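ok so I'm stuck.
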Amino acid sequence: MAWILLLVLIAIALGLVGAVVKGLLYLLVIGVVVFLAALLLGVARFRRGGRRPVR
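replied:
not stuck anymore, here's the structure
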């Protein structure tokens, strides 16, 4: 879970820098891609979640 939150924070930082600094639009695009990857990882983790089988 910590990795997903870290990816979201990185995506937000890249998105803000890409949107604010002129000429760094590619950082905004990278931030969006990282955010989507974190979102997909989070969804996959919660779908797979649930109870773990007892040995």
